[in-house]
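## Example pair
The file below holds two records. Each record gives the amino-acid sequence first, followed by its structure token line.
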Amino acid sequence: MHKVALYPGTFDPITNGHFDIIERALKLFDEVVVAVAESSDKHPRFTLAERVHMVELAIKDLDRVRVVGFNILTVELAKSINSTVLIRGLRAISDFEFELQLGYLNNSLQPDIETVYLMPKLQHAFISSSIVRNLLKFNGKTEHLLPASVQNVIWGMQTCTLP
């Protein structure tokens, strides 16, 4: 049986921590679908199209991974792609309470949905998209936090907006 795992998130932008979770999920599932949420309520720095593009660049060398953008309930997207597994990353205890509630919510909406929590390697445990966005705001160093292809895209965007 072909097991598809859905990895939803805002990915604003995708980080090395996200990429690590994708690689770990590939060891467990036949296919991983990275689902980039529109998340307009979070006021993302990058547009949905830009975030999807950055994920596509980051995963271009990985087999069995594809990217979709979405603006519906995660469980509805999971059903539409025949996935009963959601992947969520846990970096620290502070993530756990929110992720546990979200997992219970998704299961209450779609009882056959299971949430699998994966932890990134220790070297990526401190990385979050919000940390990257804050560094970008001040032209801080982000090369060690992002896939090289994503860093190049963001650097190109940054230089295009400079006076």
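Second record, same layout:
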Amino acid sequence: MRRKVIFAAAILLVIGALFGGEQKFPKFTLEDLEGNLWSLDSILSFGKPVMLTFWATWCKPCRKELDKFVERWDSWDTTKGERPYIVVALCEDSPRSVRRAKSLAKKQGWTKFLLLHDKGGQVKTKAGVAEIPELFILAPDGTIFYRHIGYNPGDEEESFAKLEELLKQLEQKPDSGETVPAEE
């Protein structure tokens, strides 16, 4: 079943790329785990690429992916200033289990990221997410540069390679803000 879902999602992405041009991530406004409101536009206003992932406390692959993001975050060379990207993790837990998500995030060090609660899965649905974890890398204009469904150990290497690719493209075109979508 999982392979069919992944195959269907890949087909939709290819069709979208061929006929729809660059695809923007759907707009949203959500609360973080502290109750503050964040919109996609407010996140993009920082002018940085965004690694956006959907997760839940009950999802072991999600937890492993976020742990790998923390490792990479902590090892990123910040001698030239702050990190050139933002990590946004959209929690798919029910309103009742958000307290547990908040506690787990603190314990695991995920509070370094922007943790938003996708109440009722509204963003998950608008983005066409079939299963979690699902990762999107967004260009600073909200264009989907890369999309990855699921998580297996080592997947983070490909994701960070795509992030590096986007960062290099942005360095080459600092004035235009245009990016070239990566291949899936």
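Notes on the second record: The longest strand covers residues 50-55. The domain at 23-172 is CATH 3.40.30.10 (Glutaredoxin).
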